[in-house]
């Protein structure tokens, strides 16, 4: 279930488990990334919101975060970037 923090804000806000599913990671991995600062080795965690004790992720923030990740056409290309 998505919620909106403001009635006039059309950006969906995802709960923790929904955001993990959207990113294709486990909820535990996403939770841990908030403490370590990295979702994967060398990849920073996406920004999140705190609403009281609850953690929420704006879908637009996740989309921007995903779009900023480098894309590769081959493993060789990836290896050359290391």
Characterize the structure shown.
The chain has 82 residues and is of the alpha+beta class. It has one domain. The protein is built from 4 helices and 5 strands; from the N terminus they run βααββββαα. It has helices spanning 16-23, 27-36, 59-68, 75-81; strands spanning 13-15, 38-40, 43-44, 49-51, 54-58. The strands form 2 sheets. It has a 3-stranded antiparallel sheet. Strands 2-3 form a two-stranded antiparallel ribbon. A hairpin with a 2-residue loop joins β2 and β3 (43-44). α1 packs across α2 (27-36). The longest helix has 10 residues, at 27-36. It is elongated, with a radius of gyration of 14 Å. The model has no long low-confidence stretch (mean pLDDT 88).
Characteristic terms for this protein:
82 residues; alpha+beta; two-stranded antiparallel sheet; 4 helices; 5 strands; 43% helix
């Amino acid at each position: 279930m998505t919620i909106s923090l403001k009635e006039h804000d059309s950006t969906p806000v995802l709960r923790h488990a929904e955001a993990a599913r959207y990113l294709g990671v486990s909820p535990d991995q996403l939770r841990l990334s908030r403490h370590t600062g990295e979702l994967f080795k060398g990849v920073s965690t996406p920004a999140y919101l705190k609403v009281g004790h609850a953690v929420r992720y704006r879908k637009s923030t996740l989309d921007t975060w995903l779009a900023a990740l480098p894309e590769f056409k081959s493993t060789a290309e990836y290896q050359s970037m290391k």
